[in-house]
Design goal:
This protein has 169 residues and is mostly helical. The protein contains six helices and two strands. The protein has one domain. It is 38% helix and 6% strand.
Amino acid sequence: MRNRFLPLLTIIGLSLATLPTITSAATLTNWLPISSITPGAINTAVTQKTIATTICVIGYTKTIRPPSSYTTALKRQQLASTYARYGSTATSIAEEDHLIPLELGGAPSSVKNLWPEIWDGTWGAHKKDQLENKLHLLVCAHQLSLDIAQRAIATNWISAYSKYVLALK
């Protein structure tokens, strides 16, 4: 059967060989960062005592977000080396994500906290974004401590998603 998207892929300069194969036979491990390389890192200016003047202030993350020139260069390097497991160096397959998000006090520029997170698939970046938003709401509402939220997302964000997004619906 002919792939109906082949003409579109050709127009935008891609081939089926350049698309990541991770979405077809991925294990949960493929969706998590490599913990020895990306264990997560925190911003020491953000503590339980400072959340009211840092992460719980609207617009706070914009003030500390690293420039895209930094994160794009890092993503290119990671996709070509430590995260070559994705099978592609195309920067469009992933976002350079903070394992511990800025909205939960993650370190903005630490390579220990940044990794190329795949966009598509069951556990793509959009799922983790949902978790980040939920944990941020819980922390700012004082329903969950900052430390617990940071640890949960850094340890295994997929398990944290099940606990804090699916179980609390």
